[in-house]
Amino acid sequence: MTKRLRQIERDQLERVKRIYGVEGDERLEENKELDGGESNDQILGQVQIHEEVSDQEVVHRKKEIDTIVKQMNDLAVLFRDVSTLVIAQGTLLDRIDFNVSDACKHVADGNKELKKIIEAENSPLARQVMWCEANLIVVCLFILLLKYSH
Question: Residue 24: which H helix or E strand, with range?
């Protein structure tokens, strides 16, 4: 902060030198009329006021910079958390992808088995077996009716 104040003092001295010249007091007397008659005390008062304002600006800027640094640190923490979540979600997505591809394989195998079953049901031999079973059931029912009807 003292470095900043020194820089402000140098800037003010340069400004005074530009306005009143390098010779100092001799040029100062000549330039009083151009200035509206400001004295050294008035100029020094203005310089001090400017320095106070500059000090306030420096403090204000320092607070703003501290706020920005804090926000950047918070942002860095958020990015770290997001990175961790992305890694965790990536592992979870890999598992889901594996399970989906495994399920697809099982569905394909199941479809093959269903086709075999449909072919077996539609075969002539299967129809004959079902016709025989239906006839046996009818015969068994008829026998039961005869037995309990007497």
Answer: none
Structural domain spans, the chain: 39-149
Rounded distance between C-alpha atoms, residue 46 and residue 9, angstroms:
12
Q: How far apart are CA 57 and CA 45, in angstroms?
A: 18
Q: Which secondary structure element, helix H or strand E, spans residue 75, and what is its range?
A: helix 40-121
**Residue 149 tokens, joined:** 């009807």
pTM confidence score: 0.34
Residue 14: is it exposed, middle or buried by C-beta count within 10 angstroms (0-12/13-18/19+)?
Answer: exposed
pLDDT tens column, 57-69: 778 888 888 899 9
The residue with greater pLDDT, 60 or 76, is 76
- Report residue 111 as tokens: 């479809």
Residue 20 CB neighbours (<10 A)? 22
